[in-house]
C-alpha cells in the first residue's frame, strides 16, 4: 500500500493561496510534479513546493474565462484538484443575478468543464486518473445568505458522484473533500465578526478553526494508490462539525 505520488502530474486550481496552496504543497511533498494554477502568480506556492523537496511550475488559469481555461488545461495529467472557488454573501431576497452567475460559473460550471476535459484526455490515452473536487459543509447544509454558494457546492457533490459512476470502470476515481471552517481569505468576514466567530467555534467539536494543511492530507490520501477503491465519496474534514 502506498501513500506516495512519485511520477504523477497534478494540477491544482486556485493554488496561489489558502487551501489550494496547501494542497499543492502536500501533493509535491508526496512526490507529485505539481502544476500550480491560478489567475494570479503562484510563484510563492512553487517556492513552498520546492522547500518540501518537491517540483512544481505555475500556470495562469482564470476561470472567469472558461473557454481559455479549459483549452489551457494540460493534456497529460494524472491528478486534477478543482479547488478554486468564490463566495458572495447577501440576503436571499436581495441576491443579484450577477452574484448567482459569477459563483455558479467558477464553483460549478468550471468544475464540470475541467473534469470533462481531464477525463476526455485520460480516456483517449487509455490512462486512469484521480479527480478531487473541493466541496463544502454547504454541500450538505443550507447555510445562510449564500444561495449561489450553497447551490454550487451541492452541485459539486452531485457531479463528483455522477463522474465517479461513469468513469470508475476506466480507472478514473472522482472524490470530493468537504472542508469545515478553515482559516483562509474565504472566511475572513466570519472570523472578524466576534459573535459569528464565537458561535462557529462553540459548535466545532475540535474547538478550533481548521488550517489549510488539514485539507491537504485528505486530498493526498484520495490521490494515492492506497485509495484506489475509494470513488464517489465526499469526505468531510471539519473537526467533527457534521457529526454533531
Ligand atoms: P481563498 O483563500 O479565497 O482561495 C480561493 C482560491 O480560488 C484563490 O486561489 C482564488 O484566487 C481562486 N479563484 C477565485 N476565482 C478564480 C478564478 N476566476 N479563476 C481562478 N482562480 C480563482 O479560499 P479557500 O478557503 O482557500 O477556498 C478554496 C476552496 O475551498 C473553495 O472552493 C472554497 O469554496 C472551499 N471551501 C473553503 C472553506 C473555508 O472554510 N475556507 C470551507 C469549505 C469550502 P485569488 O486569490 O486570485 O482570488
Automatic annotation (TrEMBL):
Pfam families: adh_short_C2
Cited InterPro entries: 2-deoxy-D-gluc_3_DH, NAD(P)-bd_dom_sf, Sc_DH/Rdtase_CS, SDR_fam
UniProt entry keywords in alphabetical sequence: Oxidoreductase
Domain of life (superkingdom): Bacteria
GO molecular function: 2-dehydro-3-deoxy-D-gluconate 5-dehydrogenase activity; 2-deoxy-D-gluconate 3-dehydrogenase activity; NAD binding
The enzyme's E.C. designation: 1.1.1.127
Family statement drawn from the similarity comment of this UniProt entry: Belongs to the short-chain dehydrogenases/reductases (SDR) family.
PANTHER family noted in UniProt: 2-DEHYDRO-3-DEOXY-D-GLUCONATE 5-DEHYDROGENASE, SHORT-CHAIN DEHYDROGENASES/REDUCTASES FAMILY MEMBER
Annotated protein name in UniProt: 2-dehydro-3-deoxy-D-gluconate 5-dehydrogenase KduD
Gene: kduD
